[in-house]
From TrEMBL:
Cross-referenced PANTHER family: ACETYLTRANSFERASE, AMINOALKYLPHOSPHONATE N-ACETYLTRANSFERASE-RELATED-RELATED
Keyword Acyltransferase: yes
Biological source species: Algimonas ampicilliniresistens
Keyword Acyltransferase: yes
Source taxon at top rank: Bacteria
InterPro entries xrefs: Acyl_CoA_acyltransferase, Bact_Acetyltransf, GNAT_dom
Protein name, UniProt field: Acetyltransferase
Record-annotated N-acetyltransferase domain positions: 18-180
Length: 183
């Protein structure tokens, strides 16, 4: 799938994992500033990150600017709402499109490439794929920094909660969106 400004979106492969992890760490460290304090940013690393099940499932996307990874994210038909391979409480249980909402997962943009449509392109690709797999709605766990972006993309806050890591509370939001049927 092509994007503007010479950017290219494609499904992530296992060879992309090192670059994805590097991008995620940079995005957490930089783009959470102004929304979280230093302790919360550090604590958020415990619950954020890459769930390689997404890559195994073929539901995770990468955006490249030439050879440089500048964005990543995807969707899932599994029960885990958020978190990486290292996070507690993950579940590989498959969701039922008739009764469950697909998940938007692990969205990250390189700080030098923010506000160029990268996140929106990944989100649109994820919504399209989830819809094609029969899902009628999506949900995600959004950070404070991501919430305004997702609201602009049609997601609404369903509830708020705190992820507690090392005694530090990190605010998160469950956000949802109904998918419009394809004609």
């Amino acid at each position: 799938m092509g994007l503007s400004d010479g950017l290219m979106l494609r499904v992530a492969g296992s060879g992309d994992i090192p670059a994805i992890r590097t991008l995620q760490a940079l995005s957490i460290a930089i783009l959470q500033r102004g929304y979280l304090d230093d302790a919360q940013i550090e604590a958020s690393r415990v619950s954020m990150g890459l769930d390689t099940q997404l890559i195994d499932d073929g539901t995770y996307f990468c955006v490249f600017d030439d050879e440089t990874l500048v964005g990543c994210g995807g969707w899932s038909n599994r029960a885990t709402l958020y978190g990486g391979d290292h996070s507690a409480g993950r579940s590989a249980r498959k969701l039922d499109p008739a009764t469950d909402r697909a998940r938007i997962r692990a969205m990250y943009t390189h700080p030098d490439h923010a506000r160029r449509g990268i996140g929106r392109s990944i989100l649109m690709a994820s919504e399209f794929a989830a819809r094609n797999h029969g899902f009628k709605a999506l949900e995600m766990a959004s950070t404070e920094a991501g919430r305004p972006f997702y609201e602009r993309c049609g997601y609404a806050v369903e509830n708020s909660f705190f992820d507690h890591n090392g005694g530090v509370a990190v605010p998160l939001y469950t956000m949802v969106k109904a998918l419009t049927p394809v004609d």
